[in-house]
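Protein modeling request. Please complete all fields; requests missing the sequence field cannot be processed.
Requester role: graduate student
Desired output: 3D structure, token encoding
Chains: 1
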Amino acid sequence: MSSPLKNPGTNPKVSQLAIWQADKSFTDIARPNASESEALGILISVHFEWAGAPIVEAFLAALEDANYHHLREIVLLAAQEDGAI
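Delivered output (85 residues):
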């Protein structure tokens, strides 16, 4: 299955979720410029009911998994300073 969104990932099931969220979140005009990353970010935000702590926790886990350890530490410090976690 080919994603109609920009920058598709490698997991077709995750792409399906992104497409589903994009259909709900983006207008017909905005959708052609939307990326899977944006749609998945919105999906995570909605899933956690816009609560900062679990959204940041998911982002930190993704950075850790991708071996962006330094960036993870910067985001963690910023989130702590902001009171998000």
